[in-house]
């Protein structure tokens, strides 16, 4: 009897150890992905920004932000749900993947139609901006193949996605350098961005096939209904998120000018480059959180608490030095013409605290079936952002937009959780996570 107990205990420890190792390896691959992109992307991105100049860089980022407003149609709020569904029902993974692929493809068509028609109504005389939106919006078609990435994430095997997407990224980075050397026009850089997404899709398909899987997935209407019934609040939440992620650049472009967008975009490029950290860690830990909920409530909340605290600490360690060195960093990277972006960066970088804590709780909302509350909190953040932008941009331009962003992120990611008894517990965990010595 004792020997049997020892064998069971050893087996359990071995399983837990293997799962932990898989999570750590997965996080390492995702960190490699983002660090590579952070390094190469910053180098090439800064080079492109210097080449284009403040105004053209602003026009490009205005178009990018405009397309991003409609991008939730390409995901339909399905991303987190797909991974959870595969973890729970691996035997029907082909039906899940196939259904999600066709749903995302339909969403991409809606995205490009809405984006192009909207920009045409707003700026029908601005052919450059309309062209940029049309090219950048087409990338949504290729994002349907990110369905393959969901499978790799569910198996904690993100290394295949990292290899596929970074190969495309490096090729495209070299193309952008060549475009700079050739003194190519602005539209050429939009085509390069589209090529990156296309090459990444090809890489994902190859990686999936190499692992012995077929993309001949099956469509399932019942699966589609089940997923959409739960995902629509997440899709609406995605729209809200994009509003308070990107509306500042659009409002700056409409209320000030393209140069203001260029300065703000330079600052946010440095600030937002760190956002890969919570996504990489949370996506790797999410399957373990979902599994822990099936085991015990104590273990489940223990894992969530640890995740929130780790991410909150990392965000503060990033924000403190960045806020003090912001102007030096901007001038060193972008040049003196972008110097005014330093004060924007010093403020905007503190949005990372709330972004990190918000990402840390996303798996909790999915596991608890409270996705409709996730939509409500992001909607509150979006409304706060629009209101504050209207109030602050006319007087303070990019600095005002940065202040609005930090406050609205705080509302959407944390403080909105305080007004509902169902989310009070997660709000308490978020607040106490800032005080690291508390148990």
| Strand proportion | under 5%
Radius of gyration based on Cα positions: 22 Å
Helix and strand element order:
HHHHHHHHHHHHHHHHHH
Shape designation: globular
Task: Count every helix, treating DSSP H or I runs of 4 or more residues as helices.
Answer: 18
Spans where pLDDT lies below 50 across 5 or more residues: 4-16
Question: What is the mean pLDDT?
Answer: 82
SS elements, strand count: 0
How many domains?
1
Main sheet specs: none
Tell me the helix content. over 70%
What do you see in this structure?
The protein has 439 residues and is mainly alpha-helical. The protein has one domain. Helices cover 84% and strands 0% of the residues. The protein is built from 18 helices and no strands. The radius of gyration is 22 Å and the shape is globular. The chain starts with a helix and ends in a 6-residue tail after the last helix.
Short summary of the structure?
The chain is mostly helical and 439 residues long. Helices cover 84% and strands 0% of the residues.
What layout of secondary structure does this protein have?
Elements: H1 2-70, H2 72-75, H3 79-88, H4 93-122, H5 127-137, H6 139-143, H7 147-154, H8 159-181, H9 186-210, H10 221-255, H11 258-272, H12 276-295, H13 297-324, H14 326-334, H15 341-348, H16 351-367, H17 371-413, H18 424-433
Helix pairs in contact: 1-4, 1-5, 1-8, 1-10, 1-11, 1-12, 3-7, 4-5, 4-7, 5-9, 8-9, 10-11, 10-17, 11-15, 11-17, 12-13, 12-16, 13-16, 13-18, 14-15, 15-17, 16-17
Keywords:
439 residues; mainly alpha; 18 helices; globular
């Amino acid at each position: 009897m004792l020997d049997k107990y020892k064998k069971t205990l050893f087996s359990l420890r071995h399983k837990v150890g293997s799962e932990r190792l898989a999570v750590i390896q997965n996080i390492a691959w995702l960190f490699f992905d983002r660090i590579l992109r952070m390094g190469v992307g910053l180098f090439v991105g800064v080079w492109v920004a210097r080449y284009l100049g403040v105004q053209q860089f602003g026009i490009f980022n205005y178009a990018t932000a405009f397309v991003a407003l409609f991008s939730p149609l390409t995901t339909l709020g399905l991303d987190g749900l797909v991974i959870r569904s595969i973890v729970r029902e691996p035997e029907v993974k082909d039906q899940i993947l196939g259904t999600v692929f066709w749903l995302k493809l339909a969403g991409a068509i809606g995205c490009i139609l809405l984006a192009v028609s909207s920009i045409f109504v707003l700026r029908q005389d601005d052919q450059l901006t309309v062209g940029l939106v049309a090219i950048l919006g087409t990338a949504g078609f290729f994002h349907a193949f990110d369905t393959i990435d969901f499978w790799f994430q569910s198996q904690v095997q993100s290394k295949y996605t990292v290899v596929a997407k970074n190969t495309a990224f490096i090729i495209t980075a070299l193309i952008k350098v060549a475009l700079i050397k050739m003194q190519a026009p602005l539209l050429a850089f939009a085509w390069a961005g589209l090529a990156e997404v296309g090459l990444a899709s090809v890489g994902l398909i190859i990686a999936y096939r190499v692992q012995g899987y077929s993309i001949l997935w099956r469509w399932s209407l019942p699966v589609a209904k089940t997923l959409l019934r739960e995902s629509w609040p997440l899709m609406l939440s995605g729209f809200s998120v994009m509003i308070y992620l990107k509306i500042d650049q659009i409002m700056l472009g409409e209320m000030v000018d393209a140069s203001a967008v260029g300065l703000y975009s330079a600052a946010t490029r440095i600030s937002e480059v760190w956002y890969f950290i919570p996504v990489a860690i949370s996506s790797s830990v999410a399957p373990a959180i979902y599994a822990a909920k099936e085991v015990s409530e104590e273990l489940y909340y223990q894992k969530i608490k640890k995740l929130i605290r780790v991410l909150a600490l990392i965000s503060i360690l990033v924000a403190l030095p960045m806020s003090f060195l912001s102007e030096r960093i901007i001038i060193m990277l972008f040049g003196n013409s972008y110097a005014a972006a330093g004060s924007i960066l010093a403020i905007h970088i503190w949005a990372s605290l709330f972004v990190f804590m918000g990402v840390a709780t996303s798996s909790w909302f999915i596991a608890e079936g409270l996705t409709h509350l996730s939509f409500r909190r992001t909607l509150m953040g979006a409304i706060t952002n629009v209101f504050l932008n209207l109030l602050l941009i006319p007087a303070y331009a990019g600095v005002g937009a940065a202040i609005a962003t930090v406050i609205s992120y705080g509302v959407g990611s944390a403080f909105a959780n305080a007004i509902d008894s169902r989310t009070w517990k997660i709000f308490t965990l978020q607040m106490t996570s800032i005080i690291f010595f508390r148990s």
